């Protein structure tokens, strides 16, 4: 099993890590392992190229230009 050393970890971050580990009834090392596993197991979002053709029947009656313009106005 590999060993990971982290240099210059900010004290405040370490204290937060300790509190979370205590809450979860884990050691700090176990908590770091769990956090890393969760972060690396998360699926990466699909790119627009991956989505090509998906759900096209849902968008058949939608004017894409108007839809995008409305969405952009909602973000402002």
Give a description of the structure.
The protein is mainly alpha-helical and 76 residues long. The protein has one domain (11-43, 51-75). Helix content is 51%, strand content 0%. The protein has three helices and no strands. The longest helix has 14 residues, at 28-41. The chain starts with 10 loop residues before the first helix and ends with a helix. The mean pLDDT is 86.
**N-to-C CA distance:** 50 Å
Please state roughly what percent of the residues sit in beta strands, choosing from under 5%, 5-15%, 15-25%, 25-35%, 35-45% or over 45%.
under 5%
Integer tally of domains = 1
Average pLDDT score = 86
Q: What's the helix count?
A: 3
H/E order of the elements? HHH
Low-confidence stretches: none
For the largest beta-sheet, the strand count, sense and barrel status come to: none
Q: What is the CA-based Rg, rounded?
A: 22 Å
- Percentage of residues assigned to helices: 40-55%
Structure described in brief:
The protein is an all-alpha fold. It is built from three helices and no strands.
Pick out its properties.
elongated; mainly alpha; 76 residues; single chain
Q: How do the strands and helices of this protein lay out in sequence?
A:
Elements: H1 11-23, H2 28-41, H3 64-75
Helix pairs in contact: 1-2
